[in-house]
Amino acid sequence: MNPSFCLHGLRTIAYLSVIATSIVGTTCAAQAFDSTADSLRLIPLTTINSSGDGYMADPQPVRLDRANALREVIISGTTHAVLQCSFPVLAECFSSRSLRVTGGSLQSMIAAAGGQITNIQNIDLFQNDRGEWHAAVTIGIHTMAHPKHWTVVAHAHPVGPVSPDTPPTDWAADSLLAGSLTEASNGNYDGKYYEEDGRLYLLYVRGIAPPPALRNEIVLQPMQTETEIASVPASVLLTPGDRDGELNSEWYANTQAKLVEAPYLSRVAGKHLLVYSTGAYLTEGYKTGVAWSDSLMPVGNGRYRKVLLRDAGNVWGQRGRLEVRYLLQSQKPQWPNFVGKQVVGPGVAAALAAPDGQWWLYLNGFAPGDMPEGADGKVQGSHRRPFGLRLRMNVPSDRRVGEVSDSELANWILPQ
Fold first, then answer.
1. In this structure, are residues 54 and 45 in contact, taking their beta carbons and an 8 Å threshold?
2. Where in the sequence is the signal peptide annotated (predicted)?
3. Which of 51, 267, 310, 315 is deepest in the core (most CB within 10 A)?
4. Given phi > 0 = left and psi -120 to 50 = alpha, else beta, which region is 45?
5. Are 256 and 312 in contact (CB under 8 A)?
6. Are 196 and 296 in contact, with CB atoms under 8 Å apart?
7. What tens digit of pLDDT does each residue of 100-143 get?
């Protein structure tokens, strides 16, 4: 692979078992930015203070019960904090509170299996219609037999007094939901709960091919309860590539890997919208795509349909081939929805409707000029920060996903 973007530094993505070689000291050639960068109205959601409060890696809106959903937006993620903003959403309206997660009773199970917890990430809070709070968390594990850590998805419960009107900030893991405590495997991360029509699901990412040509898939697992998986297999929603094969835009930097990750589901006009990310998340190549389905679970062996555009200008290196029309990207100034002047590596995004019917995209990325490198020369992922962007939804209730052209599908969701 010969990537055409400038790598600002890469770190080992241990939870995916991908090692991306660091490229340090590379100088990006001056690039011409199109007017798209100035026309999309991205706003910062937090103020970054001198202590670093306000940064948020992997922000995802929390599913709330009806009363809370009408009042505010709550965001959690990999950064051990919870963000809150009462409607209406405005620039820098989110306040931040620290959040604590421990291995809880799951830690003794991990120790009994000969392992240790290395890190806790993807802390995705969830509130059901009874006002109860739960969390799906991604936990890193390693053992003497497998010193490079792998990840599992676990359930966590609140510790101490709980109010239905306030997200708990103290959590303990207790149940394994996806992955193994003894067998190292790729994937099993980005876990979050999804509820629709009274049914509960676990949405997460799992591996389907090992390194170095790592591949993964986004799946939806029916659940009996927040801690118990239903006795039916998960359905695959999305994989790398499209109907014509693999895509150049999905390379994970300079590795052989291609990934789709950071899924978030929404229902719009009877359709199902999957927002996802691809590329290497500490580089300009990380970006946000969307895919659609008429049903929550794809029929047969189908997948959610990505929004595609023909690459007539050879932007991605395969002239005339269909490529993904990303909702946001900072990699190619000549491709739609380039936002490189406002945010670098826009990803881990989610589409959510406000009570007034206005749709918003919540995401993270680096502010230009704020991608510091550590002593090892790798970009510090902790400097990702949350942004918001209004969306225009033009989803027809009388058209099916498979019936419309690529250009029609591209107009179903547009950044403002």
1. no
2. 1-32
3. 315
4. alpha
5. no
6. yes
7. 999 999 999 999 999 999 999 999 999 999 999 999 999 999 99
